[in-house]
Amino acid sequence: MYSTMQDAPLLVSRLLRHGSTVHSDSQVVTWAGDGARRRSYGETGTRSAQLAHALRDELRIREGDRVATLMWNNAEHLEAYFAVPSMGAVLHTLNLRLPPGQLAWVVNHAADRVVLVDSTLLPLLAPLLPKLATVEHVVVVGEGDTAVLDGCRPAVHDYEALLAGRPTDFPWPEPAETTAAALCYTSGTTGDPKGVVYSHRSIYLHSLHVNTVEAMALSDADLALPVVPMFHVNAWGLPHAAFLGGVNLLMPDRFLQPGPLADMIEAERPSYAAAVPTIWQGLLSELAARPRDISSLRRVTIGGSACPPSLMREFEKRHGVTVEHAWGMTETSPLGSYAHPPRGLTGDDAWPYRVSQGRFPASVEPRLIGPDGTEQPWDGSSAGELEVRGPWIAAAYYGGADAAGPDRPTDRFSPDGWLRTGDVGTITHDGYLTITDRAKDVVKSGGEWISSVELENHLMAHPRVAEAAVVAVPDEVWGERPLAAVVLTPADGAPAAGSGSDHGDLRAFLADRVPRWQLPERWATIDEVPKTSVGKFDKKLLRARHAAGELEIVTLDRLDD
Amino acid sequence: MYSTMQDAPLLVSRLLRHGSTVHSDSQVVTWAGDGARRRSYGETGTRSAQLAHALRDELRIREGDRVATLMWNNAEHLEAYFAVPSMGAVLHTLNLRLPPGQLAWVVNHAADRVVLVDSTLLPLLAPLLPKLATVEHVVVVGEGDTAVLDGCRPAVHDYEALLAGRPTDFPWPEPAETTAAALCYTSGTTGDPKGVVYSHRSIYLHSLHVNTVEAMALSDADLALPVVPMFHVNAWGLPHAAFLGGVNLLMPDRFLQPGPLADMIEAERPSYAAAVPTIWQGLLSELAARPRDISSLRRVTIGGSACPPSLMREFEKRHGVTVEHAWGMTETSPLGSYAHPPRGLTGDDAWPYRVSQGRFPASVEPRLIGPDGTEQPWDGSSAGELEVRGPWIAAAYYGGADAAGPDRPTDRFSPDGWLRTGDVGTITHDGYLTITDRAKDVVKSGGEWISSVELENHLMAHPRVAEAAVVAVPDEVWGERPLAAVVLTPADGAPAAGSGSDHGDLRAFLADRVPRWQLPERWATIDEVPKTSVGKFDKKLLRARHAAGELEIVTLDRLDD
C-alpha cells in the first residue's frame, strides 16, 4: 500500500524561509563589547538571499562547493549558516582554536573555495593563505585593517560591499534532503582531524529535537545565548533550532571572557545559555569577585565535557539558574542525551539523574557493547562501550578510510553501521546514561573491564593522595592490569615519598571501595601526572613512560579473592 | 559532496522501541467508569510484540495488509497503534460515528482483512459483517456478549487469548520510511469518504513537532488526556508523541459524556487534555451544575472546528486552564497551525492572537491563493484560499481520482502538489492565520471575494435579526453577488415581517461596517436558516431553494460607490 503524503524534503532553506517570515520579528543580537547590534530574522532572510546571490553570481560558487567560515558567533555568521546550505553549497565552519598547521590541513582537505573571515581574525588567517591551495576568495566581515592581506593570492572582498544592492530573494534549489549541508572537523587528539558532513535532513531533524521538551525546549519567548562557538558542532544546533522556533539569539562575538560575558548577560538579559563547563566555572568566579545581575537566566545547558556536580549545584544555589547536563559529540550533531530528571523528582532526589549524561531521544538509539563483544543489559551496572544509531549520527568520516560498512571495518564504526563513541558507561532500566571512562582508558583484565576513572576518583579521595592516574599495562596472565601512578602529599612535614607500605595502605583503602579483582598490583609514585595542553591527564604519555621503563614500579602480591 | 550521516529511517517501530525502553515506566491509564486500568509503556511494548506475532503467525497478516480498529481510546487501541504499523501492516482506524453504510464502504474500499473491535461496539459491527467482503477475522477486545457474532462469516477471536503466551519481542522490519503506516478516511459531507494514508515518516515528523514548544510541548511530567478519538486523525498525533517523549496517557474509553469526563479528571488528575469545542462547552456546563476539582488541568488544546472566544475565556476564567486554539484537518495529520501568542503578550493583548488559528510550523508551509489565482501577501487583510505543503500533508487521496500532479488536475490538490484546504483566510506579517470562510461559501463578485461569514456576523449583531445566512447567487454582470437571507425578530410585539424597508435598514446598517461594493442587493426574509445534522448552516440547501425559485427575493437598487 502506498502513502498519500507529500514528498516535501527537509531542507535548511525551509528553516530559513520559515524563520524569516513566520518569525520575521525575532532578533539576532550581536554583542559589541559596550553595546549590541540588532537584526531581525526578516532582515537575516533578505541578507542571506543577498549573500547567496553574491556567492553564486560574483564568486561563482556552485552546488556542492565548500564555503568556509573563520568567524565568531555573530549575525553575519548566522547569515552564512543559512545562505550557504540553502543555495546548495556546503558550509565549512573552521575551528579558530586549531593549531595553524591543522587549520591549513582541513581547508585543503575540504577544498574550500571561499573563506568568510571576521576582520579580527585576519592575523590568524593571513599567514596561512600561501598554504591554502584551493581558496580563491577571502571575504572580510566587519571593519578592520586588511593590510595583512596585501599581495595574497586569493581575491579579497568586503562582506557588506559584496551584498549591497543584490536581490533580497533567492530561488532556493530543492536538492534531495540527504545532500551535504555543513562540514565540521573533529579536533582529534591523535592523527589528522576527521570531517563530519551534516545533511539537510540531519540538521532539520536535529533542530526539531532541540526544540522538544526532551532537550532545550526553546521558543520565541526565549533569548538564547550560545556561548558554545558556531564552529563547534553548529553551536549545538542552536542557530538552526532558533529559526525553526523563532528563538531570539544573543551572539557573544569574540567577548567570551568571564568579565565581558557577565556584562553582556546583565545588559541583554538572555533567558537561556549554552556553554562548556570551563565557561560556567569562569563566570561563577567572576560573579563572586564582581557581582552582576544575571537573574534573567532561567536555564543553561552544559556539555562538551563532563561537568563537576559541584559546579552545577553551586551555579543553581548562587544564581537560581537550572543547569542541564547534556552529552554529545561532533559525530552526533551533537545531541546526544540530555539529563532532565524523571517526572516527580525534584531537589536532592533529582541530582543523581541530573548529573548523569541523561536520556536519549527516539532518534538516537543506544547500545552498550561489553568486553566480550555482546550487548549489555540496561541495569545501571553492566558497562560497555556506547554505540549509537540514528538519522543525525555519522556513518563515516569525509574522504577518510573510516567509512563504515561490512566490507570496510574501522575503529569508529561497527560493521552494521553504528557509531562507536569511544565512551564506556552504563544505562539504567529507564534509559539514563552514565559515562565512566573513555574506552581507550579502560583496563581490559581477563575479559572484564576495570574503570580507570573510578579507581582514580577513589584514590584521590585519600588524604595522602594529591593526584592519581590509572593506566592499563600489559600482563601475561590477564591481558591487561591497572597501574596506579600516585602523587603523594607530604606526611608530617616530611618530603613526599612512596614506598611499598604507602602503596599497601592505598590498596587497603581501595579494597573497601571496589571489588578485589580490580585492585592494582602495580604502583608508582610520581612527581606529577603529565597533562595535555588543555589540562587533561595525558595517559598516553604515562603509558609510554612505563613502556620505556622510566617509572619505578612497586609490585604488591595479588590478593586472593 | 556527500553527507556522512547514517541512513536511519524514521519508523513507528522506533517510537515503540524508544517509548517502551527509555520510558518504560510511563503509563497508559484507561478509565473504566468507576476506576482505571493501568499499564506501563514497557508492558505496552511487550504486548504490542505479542499482538504482532498473533497477527503474523495466526491471522497471516503480511506487510501492507490493512488491519482495522473499531475502538474507543484505550490501552488496547494503543497497542494496535504501534504493533500494526511496526510490523509493516497498515492501521485503519474506523470512525464509529460514520453512518453504517459509509462504515461498510470504507472497510471495503480499504480492503481490511482484520477488524479489532471493542466488545461494547459489537452491536455496531455485527449487522455490517455480511457486507464486509474482505474481512477474514474479527478480534474482540474486552469482556462482553459475543452472541451477536454467532454464525458470522469471519473467524472470531478473543484479543487476550490471541496474545497469550506469544513471544514478547518482535523482529520489527525496516521498510522505507515513506511506506504506508496508517489510514484514516475523512467523513466528507459530499461524495464518498476519502482515505488519507499516513507514512512512517509523516507520523514520526509530526510527533517531533507535537512535542516542540510551538505545539503541545508535552513531556514525561504530563498526564495527557486525549478526549479527541483515536479514530479521528490519530487523536491529533498524541499517542505517537506520547511514546516519543514518555508522556503518560489517560484514555477515556467510551466515557465521553460531560459527567463521566469530569469524574475522570477529578480522579486521575491529568495535566493536559485535547478535544473539540463541544466537549469543552459540555464540561463547562457540567461543572457549573455540579462542581468537581479539575485543578490538575493546566493546559488544553481545542481544535477540530473554530472555537468561540467566549468559551475559551470562560474556561480560563472559571477553571484557571490555559486554552490553546489549533487548526488542522485529516489531510494535515492534523497539525496545522497552533495559536500561542507572540512573546511578551499576555492578558487582553494576547487574545486576538490566541483566538486566531495561530502560526504554522516550519514543516507546514502556507500560501494564500486569491480570487485571481495569485499568491496573496501576508498583510492581515488580503484573503485567499489556504494551500499548504509539507512532509505530513496529503498529496492525494487513497485509490481515488484525486491524486495530484500537473497532468492530474483536481479540486483538492494544486497542479504543483499543494493541498487546497478549502478554507479562506488571511495571514499577518508574522504568520498568524485567521480563517474567515469555507472557500465554497465565499461570494466571488467581479474578481473580488466577499466573506459570507463576515456579512452574517454583522447582520446578526443587528437587534432585529435573529439569524442570517449569506450565499452566493449567479449575477450576469458580476459573476456572483451575495443574497442575504434573514430571520427577523418580532418588532413591537407584531409578527416578524420582511419588507423592502426592513432590508433597506439592514443594508444601511451594513454600509457602516463593510465596503459598499460588498453590500447585498438581494434580500429574503425566511422563517429559519436550514441546518445540517450537526447544526451548521446548510448553505447548499439554501442555494438550491433559491435556484428553485422558492425564496421571495426583494431586490434593492445597487448603491453607487
Automatic annotation (TrEMBL), chains A, B:
* Chaperone listed as a keyword: no
Q: Ligase: is it a keyword of this entry?
A: yes
Residues in AMP-dependent synthetase/ligase domain copies: 22-398
Cited InterPro entries = AMP-bd_C, AMP-bd_C_sf, AMP-binding_CS, AMP-dep_synth/lig_dom, ANL_N_sf, ATP-dep_AMP-bd_enzyme
Give the span(s) annotated as Disordered.
364-383
Pfam families for the chain: AMP-binding (PF00501), AMP-binding_C (PF13193)
Q: Where in the numbering of this chain does the AMP-binding enzyme C-terminal domain appear?
A: 454-536
What keywords tag this UniProt record?
Ligase
Q: Which GO terms describe its molecular function?
A: ligase activity
NCBIfam families annotated for this entry? Answer: PRK06187.1 (NF004837)
Protein name per UniProt? Long-chain fatty acid--CoA ligase
Which organism is this entry from? Answer: Streptomyces bohaiensis
